[in-house]
Amino acid sequence: MLTPRTEHLIELALEEDAGLGDVTSRGIFPPTHRSRGYIAAGQDLVVCGGEIAARVFARVDPALRVALLVEDGARVKKGGKVLTVDGPTASMLTAERVALNFLQRLSGIATQARRFAAAVDGTGVRIVDTRKTTPGWRALEKYAVRCGGCVNHRSSLGEHVLIKDNHIAAAGSLTKAVKLARAAAPHLAKIEVEAKTLAEVREAMRAGAEVILLDNMTPQQVREAVGVIGGAAVVEVSGGVRYETLRSYAVDGVDVISIGALTHSAPAADLSLTIVAAKRKR
Asked: Taking the model in full, what pTM does it have?
């Protein structure tokens, strides 16, 4: 994930945090002072962002040497080490917060995704994310979702047609919105339509939607909608689905459940840097 966009995010983060230098660390430790450190998990988690954290240390000081101990997507038990770092103490401390911010945020999403994926294990239903991501971080956060075992929905408005309630309201009707979108879309594009009621499900079917998004329905309403669709379209469930109710929505006939909480409500994972002081060079 070390793309030009990621490099830019690292630059922004370092400029924000250390653009004026690190007066504390540089004041205490001369350039010759070296230390060893490690980042470890304070909870059971799924790690994500190790290479990005390593890149942060390298951008602060190429003399910092990082060894990644686990790959992204790996489960780490509480107390388990994720990486080690060795080099100038002041540089290590300057990089600490930014490296941890990337690692904690992405590992938090991966851990959340693993939890949601496990909740529907064996049902055949896939859990997908949404576009409810941190501005600028979408590619990274969707990568973390994949590391956790869930699947990505569209990453931008340009990837496929998704007609939502406001499109329908502005167009005048669901049928008209589908007709207009069909005329403008690439010939291989599928049309997905959001439906809030069984009447809208039936209208979407008549309009020829290939994917129907059942929005804010109860599990019973989802079952009824699946019966109406009868396998003629891909079924997505979204809105109002919580972890506690997730399994009740994973009914036969549902293909995917989209969960905004995978990204917008994932708590940061508990990770911290511990430094073990090394001898100062004479």
From this structure: 0.94
